[in-house]
Model the fold of this input.
Amino acid sequence: MTRRSGSLVRAATVAVAVAGGLPLLLAGCLAPLPQPLVGLNQRLEAAGPARAPALSGDWLALIVSQGGRDRVQLVDLQRQQPVPLPGLERPDAQPLSVAVDGRGERLALVRQLEGRTELVLYRRNLMALQPVPLQPPGVPRRVSLRGDGRELAVEVSRQGQWQVDLIALP
Amino acid sequence: MLALLVSGCGSWSWGRRSAGPVGWGGADRQDPALSGNGRVLASVVRRDGRDTVLLQEQPSGTVLPLRHFGRLQPHRSPSLSWNGRYLALLVQQGPERRVLIEDRATGRLHRLPLPGGLVAESLSLAADGRRLAIASEGDGRSRVQLYDLTALLEPDLPAGLPVRGAPAATP
Done:
């Protein structure tokens, strides 16, 4: 084999290797990516600064700053609209964490009110808010709700230590 | 009669239990997240000075293995799908805070890119795994954005629930 034919063979080998690897390279580049939900995101952006999202079913609960005050908002993702939460808000309450069940019926909320931090359960059909007692007492922070809304997990500070309580809800 | 009255009041009682020991002494335990069906609890535990996600079956407390997250730390804001198949998590890697999802059924790790300039603060995965909400800071404000994951993840649904778009079963 001459020097020229040898280099041709090497070039052909490299070309075959590259062609063989191309699908793999392309697959890496073309791996599916999460798609932003543009319409919903624009609506959320317009509502004001937001944090602490909780998704469940077709519902998104979050804390939105409006007019210098933080408030809980529940968004129906099918209709792309917030729903009213009568009886939940108090102008002197500061929400810290929120969770929603899969039907958008129950919300668990940690909020600061009158110098205390409390865990409460809100039921939309009753438009009622009910305190959830912590035993032994502690300071709640983040909360998570099971899909059927019948149990919650909450982070609680007791004597300088963070613990997680699981609480069955009636 | 008194017993009946007490049991009536009991319908509004709250059954509290601790999430159980984590196996590392009196470690702090934070960021709880229940799977949609309530059978898996994720939380973040300080272990060897690093915040590490812990996955436990409920109510037994049995620790469930994770394939990828043991070597990617620290962790924050875990979130689970309905059966706990998917665990979404924020992982700090140097200056970058990344959004990762481990598929516990296949062992696959999904890395989700965030738009430049945004720092993820917390996240929430929909129980069916179809959507992800990410709270982030950037450009001087906090925002929540939603992402469609249907091209990325199979749905994780309660048993017996039909998959949207799936062919109908033949008799």
